[in-house]
């Protein structure tokens, strides 16, 4: 959905309507009018790629990387990609070492124009682009940014495209950052935009993809 000039995504689905990072939450985000959703990927003890934000489940309290996927009972990445291959997906890598598998699964199941793989870890983003330069990638951050980091500018000087998107928290999406993104031909994805006034501000500053905990409310504004 690109109505009104931006793509609306649910943050881990539609978490106020169904438990976050579950199939029910993902379906709800689509049902209420979002183009897709953002979600988080970790690895279980037996090597499965599972969907969860935190390193531990809540009830019961289980350490994800020390527990087999069957016991965790979490959605599997490949199942999500198959189920929602027509949606716009923001796949966040939470832990190192899973980049290759995530890239390969995304390429197998998704249209390159309708997904991005993101991470707070610059090393993970760089690894994504090393493995697959054509895979859309974004770098997440939540601190003010006055200059682009050297790993981005150096890659650009070598004629490479280190990322497609800057992904700031909405509180650090400044006019200066917007100008930098435009200068370097980078898109902007911003997250936890939960108030109409915040939506107006980030749109004025060039956000093309907006992630919210309330996709139902924001879909009605589009």
What would you say this structure looks like, in words?
- The chain has 222 residues and is of the alpha/beta class.
- The chain has one domain (3-219): TIM Barrel (Alpha-Beta Barrel).
- 32% of the residues lie in helices and 20% in strands.
- The chain contains nine helices and nine strands.
- Helix 3 (77-83) runs parallel beside helix 4.
- It is globular.
List the main descriptive attributes of the protein structure presented here.
alpha/beta; eight-stranded parallel barrel; 9 strands; 222 residues; TIM Barrel; globular
| CATH hierarchy, class | Alpha Beta
DSSP summary, beta strand count: 9
Rg, rounded, reads 17 Å
Order of helices and strands: EHEEHHEHEHEHEHEHEH
Helical segment count: 9
Percentage of β-strand residues: 15-25%
- What is the mean predicted local confidence, pLDDT? 96
Spatial sequence of strands, sheet with the most strands: 1-2-4-5-6-7-8-9
**What structural category arises from helix and sheet content?**
alpha/beta
The major pleated sheet works out as: 8 strands, parallel, barrel
CATH superfamily: Phosphatidylinositol (PI) phosphodiesterase
CATH topology title: TIM Barrel
**First CA to last CA: what distance?**
10 Å
Give the count of structural domains. 1
């Amino acid at each position: 959905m690109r109505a009104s000039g931006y793509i609306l995504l649910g943050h881990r689905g539609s978490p106020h309507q169904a438990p976050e990072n579950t199939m029910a939450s993902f379906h709800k985000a689509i049902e209420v009018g979002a183009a897709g959703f953002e979600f988080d990927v970790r690895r279980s003890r037996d090597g499965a790629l599972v969907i969860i934000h935190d390193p531990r489940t809540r009830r019961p309290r289980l350490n994800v990387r020390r527990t087999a996927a069957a016991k965790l009972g979490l959605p599997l990445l490949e199942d999500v990609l198959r189920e929602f291959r027509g949606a716009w997906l923001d796949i966040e890598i939470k832990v190192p070492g899973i980049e290759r598998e995530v890239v390969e699964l995304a390429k197998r199941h998704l249209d390159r124009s309708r997904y991005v793989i993101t991470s707070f870890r610059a090393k993970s983003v760089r690894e994504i682009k090393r493995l697959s330069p054509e895979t859309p990638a974004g770098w997440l951050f939540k601190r003010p940014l006055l200059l682009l980091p050297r790993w981005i500018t150096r890659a650009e000087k070598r004629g490479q495209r280190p990322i497609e998107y800057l992904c700031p928290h909405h509180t650090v999406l400044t006019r200066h950052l917007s100008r930098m993104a435009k200068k370097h031909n980078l898109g902007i994805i911003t997250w936890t935009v939960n108030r109409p006034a915040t939506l107006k501000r980030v749109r004025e500053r060039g956000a093309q993809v907006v992630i919210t905990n309330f996709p139902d409310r924001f879909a009605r504004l589009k």
